[in-house]
Specification:
The chain contains 13 helices and 16 strands. The chain has 426 residues and is of the alpha/beta class. The chain has 2 domains: 6-57 and 332-425, Aspartate Aminotransferase, domain 1, CATH 3.90.1150; 66-330, Type I PLP-dependent aspartate aminotransferase-like (Major domain) (Aspartate Aminotransferase, domain 2). It has a 7-stranded mixed beta sheet with strand order 4-12-11-10-7-5-6, sandwiched between helices. The chain has a 4-stranded mixed beta sheet with strand order 1-2-3-15. Strand 2 (36-39) and strand 3 form a beta hairpin. The protein is globular. The model has no long low-confidence stretch (mean pLDDT 96).
């Protein structure tokens, strides 16, 4: 085994996400730096995925690594039950300073899916405390993705999502039609009619509406009008329903705003963040809630939130997150994201003329080429590697969400590779 390649050893012992026991194709990474992955065979790839949208500052940023080293010397971990520490308190304070108006408390966790589980628990406990336990369902829109744990799966798209195998075991939630008004369009009354109808018919059993603001991520990379989000906030207020924003993929600048809900100028009752929170260095997520939600949970039978992750508030992860937020505060990320958006829009536009392409769209540091048919990953993934880039499509979507520090020349390498691979292999 000592002479086996990394990928050979992997196939004998490791199980990868959304893959059979032996993943194929598979590429071993030896090291990372900036926006580049160096494979075990020495090839360098420009990363267009930010390691599932998290590495917004690039790999091995010295400021984040220095923060981790300092924290490692004093307090790498301690349980969060009955104890507290500066990195967790400082991070919670910073998040509330940045967050939309009204959010006042932070519950830390380990991953985005778990933060959604917590948000749903908070919504259910809210109504239990108000003696309305029958309000125990979630309303969402089709095309959404909120994670892979059970409550999170129940609000993912039940048809086009990845969890149909479990449909009979999941809580039965309510699904309105996906917003059809594109980001640049005006949201008209008929665009929200289906959601309004479901709210009117089921308000007495709905605990909360949960949405990915403006950008639906892994459920379809769809960008919808901010006006839709404003109308949802109005409807939630009208029917007395909580509003949960899932900002896990969109938070910390990806769309050009710190949080995507800022495009609509609205605030949720509960908000989930993760992915880019630590700059992609460590796993960390958070669920933020208003004082009204917190007060209701405090008045519930248990008087406490029904959740407690072992590694909640891990000091190393919190230190990395604080360093990442420092970088966002002092570096011109807005200018960089605007520049990336303009270049992606111009250089991906020729893809629209390809026969296999159904749509091309961009928003912030997100570029999407939607195909008529799903890609063949066994062909397309190696083709991207041969082109010198790391782009990982899924289904009918070939997309990039690069680090904010990506140079113009590296971005052009990504867009040329997409046009070439899509034209030759789809």
């Amino acid at each position: 085994m000592a002479h086996s390649s990394l990928t050979d050893r992997d196939r004998r012992s490791v199980w990868h996400p959304y893959a059979p026991p032996e993943a194929e194709p598979l590429f071993g990474v030896a090291r990372v730096e900036g926006v580049r992955l160096t494979l075990e065979d020495g090839r360098e790839l420009v990363d267009g995925m930010s390691s599932w949208w998290a590495v917004i500052h690039g790999y091995r940023h010295p400021a984040i690594e220095a923060a981790l080293k300092r924290q490692l010397e004093t307090l790498p971990h301690v349980m969060f039950g009955g104890l507290t520490h500066e990195p967790a308190v400082g991070l919670s304070e910073r998040l509330l300073e940045l967050a939309p108006e009204g959010l006042s408390r932070v519950f830390l966790s380990d991953s985005g899916s778990v933060s959604v589980e917590i948000a749903i628990k908070l919504a259910l406990q809210f109504w239990q405390a108000r003696k309305r336990p029958e309000r125990n369902r979630l309303l969402t829109v089709r095309g959404g993705y909120h994670g892979d744990t059970f409550a999170a799966m129940s609000v993912c798209d039940p048809v086009t999502g990845m969890h149909h195998l479990f449909s009979g075991l999941l809580a039965q939630q309510l699904f309105a039609e996906r917003p059809v008004c594109r980001f640049e369009q005006t949201c008209e009354p008929h665009h929200t009619r289906d959601l309004e109808t479901l709210l009117a018919e089921h308000a007495s059993e709905i605990a909360a509406v949960i949405l990915e603001p403006v950008v639906q991520g892994a459920g379809g990379m769809w960008f919808y009008a901010p006006g839709y989000l404003r109308r949802v906030r109005e409807l939630c207020d009208e029917y007395g329903v909580l509003l949960i924003h899932d900002e896990i993929a969109t938070g910390f600048g990806r769309t050009g705003k710190m949080f995507a809900c800022e495009w609509a100028g609205v605030s949720p009752d509960i908000m989930c963040v993760g992915k880019a929170l630590t700059g992609g260095v460590m796993s960390l997520a958070a669920t933020l809630a208003t004082e009204e939600v917190c007060d209701a949970v405090a008045m519930s039978e248990s008087g406490a939130i029904a959740h407690g992750p072992t590694f909640m508030g891990n000091p190393l992860a919190c230190a990395a997150a604080l360093a990442s937020l420092d970088l966002l505060e002092r570096e011109p990320w807005q200018e960089r994201v605007r520049s990336i958006e303009a270049q992606l829009r111009e250089e991906l536009a020729p893809c629209a003329a390809l026969r296999s392409v159904a749509d091309v769209r961009t928003l912030g540091a997100i570029g999407v080429v939607e195909l008529h048919e799903p890609v063949d990953m066994a062909v397309v993934q190696p083709a991207f590697v041969e082109a010198g880039v790391w782009v990982r499509p899924f289904g009918r979507l070939v997309y990039v969400m690069p680090p904010y520090i990506t140079s113009s020349s590296d971005l052009s390498l990504l867009t040329r590779a997409i046009h070439e691979v899509v034209s030759r292999h789809t």
